[in-house]
From TrEMBL, chain A:
The lineage of its organism: Bacteria, Bacillati, Bacillota, Negativicutes, Selenomonadales. InterPro entries: GATase_2_dom (IPR017932), Ntn_hydrolases_N (IPR029055). This is Glutamate synthase (NADPH) GltB1 subunit. Gene3D superfamilies: Glutamine Phosphoribosylpyrophosphate, subunit 1, domain 1. It comes from Pectinatus cerevisiiphilus. Residues 2-360 form the Glutamine amidotransferase type-2 domain. Coiled coil: none annotated.
From TrEMBL, chain B:
It comes from the Bacteria. One of its GO terms (molecular function) is metal ion binding. Its EC number is 1.4.1.13. [4Fe-4S] cluster 2 binds at C79, C82, C85. PANTHER family: ARCHAEAL-TYPE GLUTAMATE SYNTHASE [NADPH] (PTHR43819). One of its GO terms (biological process) is glutamate biosynthetic process. Belongs to the glutamate synthase family. This is glutamate synthase (NADPH). Keywords: 4Fe-4S, Amino-acid biosynthesis, Glutamate biosynthesis, Iron, Iron-sulfur, Metal-binding. Pfam families: Fer4_16, Glu_synthase. SUPFAM superfamilies: 4Fe-4S ferredoxins (SSF54862), FMN-linked oxidoreductases (SSF51395). InterPro entries: 4Fe4S_Fe-S-bd, 4Fe4S_Fe_S_CS, Aldolase_TIM, GltB, Glu_synthdom.
Length: 368, 543
C-alpha cells in the first residue's frame, strides 16, 4: 500500500520531517520509492519565490538538451541548486546522474503578461521538455512552477534521503508545505513518472489506493486538456480532475468531491441543489472514481485538502498543533512528528467528508 | 414403383416430426385442440398386430384399424415444434422432434418469401460468451460485498451536456442553474424494448407494462418500457404511469393520432420518445403486422382498416441525419415542451459509427440517446431472408461507437443503448454487464420478456410463428381464445422476478471488480478467450 502524507506549517521545515512522518508507516518490503513536492520554499530558494523552478532528473546529455531548449526560448537562469549526493556504498537507490533544480526568469516579452498566460507558458515548456527528454531517454522533468520543488526517486526512502543528504537539516532546502509519498506504483512498470505526488499548474496531488475507473477516467481526460498526459499511474486521474474542476471549470472546491464520488441518485433527489448535482454527475460521469482511495492535494493558493473514496476503504488522519497540520495515511506517522498534539482533535474524515487546511492552518471540514 | 411421387411432401420433409406413442395415448384429443396451426389430426391406421382376447393366452396375428394422432404433411400446417401438444398431454404420449433432414426451408417458397417471427436462425453466434469478467479486485483494491455494499445502478437517458456547457453560474459560492438544460432521466440500465400492441396481444403487452409499474412502484427500479409502433390505450396515456413509457414513433406513425389527441389530458410526461429508424432483426425493412393480427382493437388504436400493415422502410421525407435531427428531433422535443428526451433507434450497420458521429455533432444538442439494435434482435414478423441474412452483430458495434466518441472526447453525451440478443441464453445480467463495460450505458430486451411470459420460440427454428396470429402461447396473437392461455398476473410476476434477479446478478458482477456504479466503458475489466474478439474489442487475450 502506498503511504501518503503532507505537512503544512507556519514555520518552514526540512524534508526530514516528512520522512519522519512516513517511515513509521512502512510495512514489510514496502520501500520501493520516495517522492515529494515542496511548496512555499525557503532556504536557498527564498529570494526566488516568484521565479519558476524547474525540477528534473537527467543524464548529462539530457541536461544539455534542457539548457539548449531553455536558452533558445529566452528563459534566463537566475539560480540553481544541484545536490551533491552522498554516494556511499550500499545505498538502495537507482539514482539518475543529475538532479537539477533551477530558477528561471520568464522571457522578457512574458514578464508583464498576466499570470494566466504565464501558467500556460510554464505548462507548455514542461510538456515540451518532457517530450524531448522522453524521446531521447535522457531524463525526467517533474515540475516547472514558481516556489515548487519536486524530487522523486526509486529505492529505499531512507537511503534516498541519505543520498540527497535530507537527514542533514542543513537549512538549504526548506518549505512550509510538503506533500510526500513512499512506495512506487505497482500496477504498471516502475517508472519515475508513476510516482506520486503529481503536479500540474500549481496543483499537487497524491493518492493512496486503486482507481478502478482508471480506463474511463483516462479515456475522457486525454481529450480534456493538453496537460493531461502520461497516465503512468491511476492516481494521476485525481489530479487531472482536480485541475479540471478548479482550474478549467472554475467551480468552487466543494464540487470536486461531487465529481469524483458523487452522491447516490436517491440522495441527490433529496437535496435542494439536486438539479446542479445531477447535471454534474451526468456530465462528468467519466471522471467519477471507484475503488479504495485517499487523496491529499495542495492547491496553487497553498490550501491543502484531503478526502476519501465513497466507501472509506482507505485510511487517513489529520493531526494538528499550534503551528503545524499534518495529514497521514496512518496515525503512527503523526505520533512520530507531533507526539504532544491533542490526539482527541485528530480528524478521521469519513467517506463523504472533505477537509481543507487554509493558509492560517484553520481546518475546515464539510460533508459533500 | 411409380406410385411414389417425388414431389409429394411427407413427414420426413418437415422440420418437426410428431412422435406419438400409441400405447400411452388415451385419445383424449387435448393435443389436437391445443395445436393452433392444425399440424396434427385424429386418424386411423391399419396395423398388423398380435392379439390375445381369449380368457387364456391365445395369441394370433391379425389386421386391425386403430385410432392415432397423425401429423398433417403440408407446408401450410407444418408442425412448428412449439410443444403445446406435449405440454397438454396428460400421459406424455406426444411430442415434436426436430428433423435434421428437413427439406422444408427449400420447399416453403411457393407462396412467395417466407415470413416468420423470432430471431435470426443463422447468425446466433455468441460473442459475449467468449468474454469473461477477468479483472478481479484482489488484495490492494478490495472486491465489494454484493449484498452489504450499496450500489448505484442508474443510466442517463437524454442529451448530456459537456460540463463546459452546463448552464451554471456562481451565486454565493454555489453553482446554480440559470436556464434549463436538456432533460436527462436517470433510469435503470435495462429497457423493455419496443413491442407493439398488435405484435403482442393486448394481454401480453399489459403483462409487460404491469411488470414495469410494479418494478417502479414497489421495487424502486426505474425500468422503462418502449411502447412499440402501435400506440397505447388512452387510459394509459392519461395516467400517471405514462412516466414509465417511452413512446415510439416509427415510419408508419401508427398510434400517434391517439397520442397527440391525448396530450392535453396527459397527467405526466412520458419517459421519452424513441424515433425508430430501423430494427436489428430486419434492417432496411419497416414494421410488418399481418392482417391476421389486425384485430378490431388494433384497428382502433392505430386508426387503420383490417389489412396487412407494412410500415415504410424509412421515415418519409427524411433523407439525411441532419434533417432527421432538425425535423423529427426538434418537433418531438417541441411537442413535449423540451421536457422529454428524444432518442433514436437504428439497426446496427456498418455505418452506425458515422451516424453516431453525426448525431454527436448535432448543434441543437437534442438527441437524447442512440439505440443500436443488432442482428440477433427479435421481431413479430419479417421476411425470413431478412432475419437470417441481413443485419450486424451488436457487440463490436457498441464498442466501435463508444470508441468513436472517446476519440472526440464526447463519450457519454449521447447515451448508447445496445440490444439484439441480450439474454439469449437466459443470462441477461452477464450480457448487460459486458456490454456496459464495452461502452453501452444500458441494454434493451424484448424477446427475452416474452420468453418469460411463456414464448417458446428460439433461434433454432422453434415456433417463430409470431406473424401468423396463431401464437400457441397467446402472446403474439389477437385471437381471444388463444390470448386466454396467457395468465397476465403470473406473466408479470415472472418478469418482475427475473428483473429483481438481474439486479442482484448485476451487483454480483460489479462487486468483484470493485465498482459500486456502472462501469461504462471499463473494458479493462474484461478479458477474452478468443484472440480475434480480443483484438477487435481491444481486450486482453487470455487462455
Amino acid at each position: 500500500m502506498c503511504r501518503i502524507g503532507s505537512i503544512k506549517s507556519k514555520v518552514a521545515f526540512s524534508p526530514s520531517k516528512a520522512l519522519y512522518l512516513m517511515l513509521p508507516q512502512q510495512e514489510g518490503h514496502d520501500n520501493s520509492g520516495f517522492a515529494m513536492v515542496m511548496q512555499d520554499l525557503y532556504g536557498i530558494f527564498t529570494p526566488y519565490k516568484d521565479k519558476p523552478l524547474l525540477s528534473l532528473a537527467c543524464t548529462q546529455r539530457g541536461a544539455q538538451m534542457v539548457e539548449d531548449f531553455m536558452d533558445s526560448h529566452n528563459f534566463e537562469q537566475v539560480a540553481e541548486w544541484i545536490p551533491v549526493p552522498n554516494n556511499q556504498p550500499g545505498l538502495d537507490i537507482k539514482a539518475m546522474p543529475y538532479y537539477i533544480f533551477r530558477n528561471y526568469d520568464y522571457p522578457e516579452y512574458y514578464r508583464d503578461k498576466p499570470m494566466s498566460e504565464k501558467e500556460e507558458l510554464l505548462l507548455n515548456v514542461r510538456l515540451k521538455l518532457r517530450e524531448i527528454l522522453e524521446a531521447a531517454g535522457e531524463g525526467y522533468v517533474y515540475s516547472f512552477w514558481p516556489d515548487v520543488l519536486t524530487l522523486k526517486e526509486i529505492g529505499d526512502p531512507r537511503d534516498i534521503a541519505t543520498y540527497f543528504r535530507l537527514w542533514d537539516d542543513n537549512g538549504c532546502l526548506m518549505a512550509k508545505s510538503i506533500v510526500v509519498q513512499c512506495r512506487q506504483n505497482t500496477n504498471y512498470d516502475i517508472v519515475r513518472y508513476a510516482a506520486h505526488p503529481f503536479f500540474l499548474q500549481g496543483y499537487t496531488l497524491c493518492a493512496n489506493g486503486e482507481n478502478t475507473f482508471y480506463t474511463k477516467n483516462k479515456e475522457f481526460q486525454k481529450s480534456l486538456h493538453r496537460g493531461y498526459v502520461g497516465f503512468e499511474s491511476d492516481s494521476q486521474n485525481f489530479l487531472y480532475t482536480l485541475h479540471y474542476v478548479l482550474h478549467e471549470l472554475k467551480w468552487p472546491i466543494k464540487y470536486y468531491k461531487h465529481v469524483i464520488t458523487p452522491l447516490p441518485f436517491a440522495e441527490i433527489d433529496q437535496r435542494e441543489d439536486k438539479d446542479v448535482l445531477k447535471a454534474i454527475r451526468q456530465s462528468l460521469a467519466n471522471l467519477e472514481i471507484n475503488g479504495p482511495n485517499t487523496i491529499i492535494a495542495n492547491l496553487p493558493d497553498g490550501r491543502m485538502l484531503t478526502c476519501c473514496d465513497s466507501k472509506k476503504l482507505r485510511p487517513v488522519v489529520v493531526g494538528q498543533t499550534d503551528d503545524t497540520v499534518a495529514i497521514s495515511s496512518e496515525v503512527c506517522g503523526l505520533n512520530e512528528i507531533m507526539p504532544d498534539r491533542d490526539m482527541s482533535k485528530d480528524i478521521y474524515p469519513n467517506e463523504r467528508e472533505v477537509v481543507v487546511i487554509d493558509n492560517d492552518l484553520e481546518v475546515q471540514r464539510w460533508k459533500q | 414403383m411409380e406410385a411414389v411421387k417425388s414431389q409429394d411432401i411427407c413427414k420426413a420433409d418437415l422440420k418437426w416430426n410428431i412422435e406419438h406413442i400409441m400405447e400411452r395415448c388415451t385419445m383424449c384429443g387435448s393435443c389436437i385442440s391445443t395445436c393452433t396451426i392444425g399440424a396434427i389430426k385424429a386418424g386411423v391406421i391399419r396395423v398388423d398386430k398380435t392379439f390375445s382376447d381369449d380368457i387364456k393366452p391365445n395369441p394370433r396375428r391379425t389386421h386391425r384399424t386403430i385410432p392415432v394422432i397423425k401429423q398433417v404433411n403440408t407446408i401450410a400446417n407444418a408442425c412448428i415444434g412449439c410443444g403445446m401438444c406435449a405440454k397438454v398431454c396428460p400421459n406424455n404420449a406426444i411430442r415434436p422432434v426436430r428433423n435434421l433432414d428437413s427439406r422444408q426451408t427449400l420447399l416453403s417458397r411457393d407462396a412467395g418469401p417466407i415470413k416468420r417471427g423470432g430471431r435470426t436462425n443463422l447468425n446466433a453466434q455468441r460473442t459475449l460468451d467468449h468474454i469473461i469478467v477477468g479483472r478481479i479486485s484482489q488484495m490492494t483494491d478490495p472486491s465489494l460485498d454484493s449484498i452489504r455494499h450499496t450500489f448505484d445502478i442508474r443510466s442517463p437517458f437524454g442529451r448530456v451536456l459537456p460540463a463546459t456547457e452546463l448552464p451554471f453560474s456562481l451565486k454565493d459560492g454555489k453553482l446554480v442553474m440559470v436556464h434549463k438544460a436538456p432533460p436527462v432521466r436517470s433510469i435503470y440500465p435495462l429497457i423493455f424494448s419496443d413491442m407493439s400492441i398488435g405484435a403482442l396481444s393486448t394481454r401480453a403487452w399489459e403483462a409487460v407494462s404491469m411488470a414495469v409499474a410494479y418494478l417502479n412502484e414497489k421495487c424502486g427500479l426505474p425500468v422503462r418500457m418502449s411502447s412499440g409502433e402501435g400506440g397505447m390505450p388512452s387510459r394509459l396515456l392519461e395516467s400517471e404511469q405514462l412516466k414509465y413509457m417511452i413512446l415510439q414513433i416509427a415510419s408508419g406513425h401508427f398510434g400517434w393520432n391517439r397520442i397527440i389527441k391525448a396530450m392535453p389530458r396527459m397527467k405526466a410526461d412520458p419517459a421519452g420518445v424513441l424515433i425508430k429508424i430501423g430494427q436489428g432483426a430486419k434492417p432496411g425493412d419497416g414494421g410488418l403486422l399481418q392482417a391476421a393480427k389486425v384485430a378490431e382493437h388494433v384497428q382502433a388504436i392505430r386508426g387503420v382498416p383490417k389489412a396487412t400493415l407494412s410500415s415504410p422502410p424509412n421515415h418519409q421525407g427524411l433523407y439525411s441525419i441532419e434533417e432527421s435531427v432538425q425535423k423529427m428531433h426538434l418537433s418531438l422535443n417541441a411537442a413535449f415542451g423540451f421536457r422529454v428526451p428524444v432518442a433514436i433507434k437504428c439497426a446496427a450497420s456498418a455505418t452506425s459509427v458515422s451516424v453516431y458521429n453525426n448525431l454527436l455533432r448535432d448543434p441543437y444538442k437534442i438527441c437524447g440517446g442512440f439505440f443500436i439494435d443488432g442482428i440477433q434482435g427479435g421481431t413479430g414478423a419479417a421476411n425470413e431472408i431478412s432475419l437470417d441474412h441481413t443485419g450486424h452483430p451488436i457487440v463490436s458495434k457498441i464498442r466501435d461507437c463508444y470508441l468513436a466518441a472517446v476519440k472526440q472526447g464526447l463519450q457519454g453525451q449521447i447515451p448508447l443503448y445496445g440490444g439484439g440478443g441480450i439474454g439469449m441464453t437466459g443470462n441477461a445480467a452477464a450480457d448487460a454487464f459486458k456490454m456496459i463495460c464495452l461502452g453501452a450505458n444500458g441494454v434493451f430486451v424484448g424477446k427475452m420478456l416474452i420468453q418469460l411470459l411463456g414464448c417458446v420460440g428460439n433461434e433454432e427454428g422453434r415456433c417463430n410463428a409470431c406473424n401468423t396470429g396463431k401464437c400457441p402461447t397467446g402472446i403474439c396473437t389477437q385471437d381471444p381464445r388463444l390470448v386466454k392461455r396467457l395468465d397476465v398476473d403470473r406473466g408479470a410476476q415472472k418478469i418482475v422476478d427475473y428483473v429483481l434477479t438481474f439486479d442482484k446478478e448485476l451487483r454480483k458482477l460489479m462487486a468483484p471488480i470493485g465498482n459500486s456504479t456502472l462501469p461504462v466503458g471499463r473494458s479493462d475489466a474484461l478479458v477474452s478467450t478468443d484472440k480475434a474478439i480480443a483484438e477487435q474489442l481491444g481486450l486482453q487475450y487470455v487462455c
